[in-house]
Specification:
heterodimer, B: mainly alpha, MetI-like fold, globular
Chain lengths: 292, 298
């Protein structure tokens, strides 16, 4: 599924490039606007869906969307080659310093929320885990499902590659339990798979596997694990409701950044993104809409 | 004596010469580029750190040993599968099968070589890995063995195609001579035809190794990419991370000129040196066998 999306992404990049080229020739005639949007791979499907809808409603605006990762998008914003950077993490202090050195203040917009679901094979009897247990599984302390109340089977840990924003978020929030002094690492035998699709297909056919992925990318035939913050908290399944009431512990905001306060067409686009109309697209893609 | 070359001949000679030298020039340029981008890693990371066993580059753990052992175990496994299979197929095509069958089979084998490795990778993820897991009762099928099997499959067409050409080039009189002396068909193949085609067969194997160690996509999809030390015999049944998969997966997002970037190029340099060593060893073996053959003939 991710691969199909990827193909769609490539195509739309090409189309966007063509549209960009043609819009530049239009812009000489006057009224049209061209917005460049780049960054997080988590957000890219959402940003594409938004751009499509918005362009259909506003034929005078053309928007090009590209992925590449949160860091890539922010770097492009710093180099002023894009108008809006997508990021699945907040800008780091040093990136903000760099922006100031280049003469602008980055402005942050929360555009949607995303939950990271912990997934296992449907035949796995384990249906709930605490954050501490997930941390111990991924750090290599637990190596058998029996240690967390399952069958006597080895645990196969799956993770995204190290350049994924989701990997970093999961390491900091779950494995290190949000403690910045904690330097626990993934166990060395953790399988690092280059795509969401790789994780999904391995979890689908392997009863030993545990993996994690953005809620929007988990197909319905896999089992999501209910997660508790600690042993005394209730176990909560990831969903739009549990993310918004903050009871599901592994959820994050998704951001867009502009260089300085946006104006004109960019401001109009960002205003539209937080409108109820645009936020229904968020829910359709499996992300969590923001409620004002 | 006056030699007259028409200008077109001079031109063609120049073009051919340029083509010949350009290969050398390109290899040198690539080598210098790798040196320039990779060698700074030695200054930025301590050698003891580079030779440690932990690869987690986003927090400055730059141990490349797991990656080197991963590449070696997958390549060795692939060659153990591909070499007998490839040479066997070549011998069958050239020596045993009737001519009409060869005309059908050889293009088919070469067609197999044209399959994009990413397609094989898909087959690996969806069919081979689940099969290995249930058949061998492993925790996961994404292992070095899955990578070796796929890479073996990728190397076989290369080996078959070149080895078969070499066997086919052995003069018919050799075989006739052997048979006339009372050798059986097998003795003729094993003692006469194969040794006579030795340099071509070795070239085939070396190109096969070259394809194997440099292959990226299929390996990245099926070996699980866990950077563990692959030094035990049982490591073949465990996930490994190869050098090529590491570079491919991580090059996308590193900052230009950072330590991480230099270490990735250093891995590329190691890979280059390994291929170079394989090639040098191969050509020296081929060279030696040739001179001996010449001595016998003279």
């Amino acid at each position: 599924m991710k691969f199909i999306r990827f193909v769609v992404l490539i195509l739309s990049v090409f189309l966007a490039a063509c549209a960009g080229a043609s819009s530049q020739s239009h812009s000489q005639s006057g009224s049209s606007a061209y917005i460049q949007n780049k960054g997080s791979d988590t957000i890219v499907n959402l940003a594409l869906a938004w751009a499509e809808k918005y362009q259909a409603e506003h034929p005078d605006v053309s928007i090009s969307v590209t992925g590449g990762g949160s860091g890539t998008g922010i770097a492009a914003l710093l180099n002023k080659t894009v108008d809006i950077a997508n990021a699945s993490r907040q800008m780091q202090a040093e990136e903000i310093t760099q922006a100031k050195a280049r003469g602008f203040d980055p402005v942050e917009f929360v555009i949607a929320r995303d939950a990271i679901a912990v997934i296992v094979n449907p035949t796995n009897p384990v249906s709930r885990l605490t954050m501490q247990q997930i941390s111990d599984i991924y750090s290599g302390k637990f190596n058998n499902w029996a240690q967390v109340g399952g069958q006597d089977r080895p645990i196969v840990r799956l993770s995204r590659e190290v350049n994924s924003g989701t990997h970093v978020y999961f390491r900091d929030t779950v494995i290190r339990l949000g403690d910045p002094k904690n330097k626990t690492l993934f166990a060395t035998d953790t399988l690092l798979l280059p795509s969401s699709e790789g994780i999904v297909s391995e979890v689908r056919q392997n009863p030993n596997a545990i993996g994690y992925d953005g809620l929007g990318y988990v197909p319905s035939d896999l089992k999501k694990v209910a997660v508790a913050k600690d042993a005394n908290s209730p176990y909560v399944l990831p969903s739009i409701a549990t993310v918004n009431d903050k009871s599901y512990p592994i959820a994050r905001d998704l951001y867009m950044y502009t260089a300085g306060q946006p104006t004109g067409a960019i401001k109009a686009y960002l205003d539209w993104i937080v409108s109820p109309e645009a936020q229904t697209i968020v829910a359709n893609l499996g992300f969590v809409p923001i409620i004002k | 004596m006056k030699r007259s070359l028409s200008w077109s001949e001079t031109l063609i000679t120049a073009v051919v010469k340029t083509c010949g030298y350009s290969a050398v020039v390109f290899v040198l340029l690539i080598f210098f580029f790798l040196l320039r981008e990779g060698v700074p890693a030695l200054g930025e990371v301590k050698l003891s750190e580079l030779l440690s066993t932990r690869w987690y580059p986003i927090e400055n753990h730059f141990g490349i040993l797991p990656l080197i052992t991963g590449s070696i175990i997958v390549t060795l496994g692939a060659m153990l599968i591909a070499a007998p299979f490839g040479i066997g197929t070549a011998v069958f095509l050239s020596e045993i099968s009737p001519r009409w069958l060869r005309e059908i089979l050889k293009p088919l084998v070469e067609l197999l070589g044209g399959l994009p490795s990413v397609v094989l990778g898909f087959l690996g993820i969806l069919i081979l890995a689940p099969f290995l897991r249930t058949f061998l009762n492993l925790p996961t099928g994404l292992t070095a063995l899955a990578g070796a099997l796929l890479l073996g499959g990728i190397a076989v067409p290369t080996i078959v195609s070149i080895a078969e050409d070499a066997l086919d080039a052995v003069p018919q009189s050799y075989r006739e001579g052997a048979l006339a002396l009372g050798a059986t068909k097998w003795q003729t193949i094993w003692r006469v035809t194969l040794p006579a085609a030795r340099s071509g067969v070795l070239t085939a194997l070396m190109l096969g190794i070259g394809r194997t160690i440099g292959e990226t996509m299929a390996v990245m999809m099926v070996t699980g990419n866990a950077p563990v030390m692959a030094i035990k015999l049982s490591s073949i049944l465990a996930p490994v991370r190869t050098m090529t998969a590491t570079i491919a997966a991580e090059m996308g997002e590193v900052a230009n000129g950072s330590t991480y970037y230099h270490v990735l190029f250093f891995i590329g340099l190691v890979l280059f040196v390994i291929s170079l060593a394989v090639n040098i060893i191969a050509s020296s073996v081929v060279f030696r066998s040739k001179t001996r053959a010449e001595r016998v003939l003279s």
